[in-house]
Design goal:
By secondary structure, the protein is of the alpha/beta class. It has 11 helices and 11 strands. Helix 1 packs parallel to helix 3, helix 4 packs across helix 11 (about 270-280) and helix 8 packs antiparallel against helix 10. It is globular.
Length: about 280
């Protein structure tokens, strides 16, 4: 099967197979682009064409890998736009692909499922810090609760004031109330483009990041221009939002009180594949 994720800051697709009770990714494709300039904007004709072209490439990838099922989902930018039906119509008419918009809570739950299967951790807080939202789940022997926080690194970058962004982030996270009284035994597991870039820039081959290292990287990037960030190794598509994305993760770590996090190899797409194969 093939799973497509039309996110706020990128489009990604993966082909999965089910073998021996486990789910494996055998091929993938991605394209960095922003569905809308700002969360809440409508999608333009140009962006619809880009998405349609990407889905055409996805169909080729699926065919090459013997996959005859494509599941396509869209996340926060799609949830916030008024004309998502236009994009859905284009993809259905040209490619026969049904694009479904899923809730942030569902995103969080699916990512938690992916974390559980890929790590077998018994107790963890998982988060996917995307360009459009931060989706959080609490897992303690079983899935407990999910939250979708409408914090957009894209929108925060438009404000252009880090102190104001910090206040917005903290105010939003104040609405997240974990069920477990003591989180000291929990792992913090995350995903998202900014976190993956941070791991690479820090040279963390083991995918573990401590708060101080992440904070040092944040302080370094804050003082750079977009061009300097690109020269430093940040992709052009993330240069303007990178400090804001890191700030979101740092404030979440403070909120939870955990000084180390783990970049998960799983993601929303693998969570969807796991759920599908569990049911079939």
């Amino acid at each position: 099967m093939t799973v497509v994720d039309i996110g706020s800051g990128s489009m990604k697709a993966s082909v999965f197979v089910h073998d021996g009770g486990k789910v494996y990714q055998v091929a993938s494709i991605s394209h960095a682009y922003r569905l809308c300039p700002k969360i809440g904007d409508s999608i333009s004709l140009r962006k619809k064409e880009i998405a349609a072209k990407f889905i055409g490439c996805v169909k080729d990838l699926a065919l090459q890998n013997g996959s005859n099922l494509i599941i396509a989902v869209a996340t926060q930018a799609a949830r916030a736009m008024s004309n998502i039906d236009e994009l859905q119509s284009v993809l259905q008419e040209r490619h026969g692909v049904n694009l479904v918009t899923i809730s942030g809570e569902e995103e969080a739950k699916l990512f938690a499922l992916s974390v559980r299967r890929s790590t077998e951790f018994d107790k963890f807080i998982s988060f996917d810090a995307g360009c459009g939202s931060v989706d959080i789940a609490e897992f303690n022997e079983k899935f407990l609760k999910a939250w979708s926080c409408p914090i957009s690194s894209i929108s925060l970058s438009k404000i252009g004031n880090l102190n104001q962004a910090k206040n917005i982030i903290d105010d939003t996270f104040n609405n997240v109330h974990f069920i477990s009284d003591d989180l000291s035994g929990f792992k913090l597991v995350g995903s998202g483009g900014v976190l993956k870039i941070a791991v690479r820039l820090l040279g963390k081959c083991n995918r573990n990041i401590d708060y101080q290292s992440l904070n040092n990287l944040y302080n370094k990037l804050v003082d750079m221009s977009d061009d300097e960030r690109v020269e430093f190794g940040v992709p052009m598509s993330r240069a303007d939002i990178m400090p804001y994305g890191l700030l979101i993760i740092l404030r979440l770590m403070k909120k939870i009180g955990i000084d180390n996090l783990i970049l998960c190899v799983g993601n929303l797409r693998s969570g969807i594949a796991i759920r599908y194969f569990d049911k079939h």
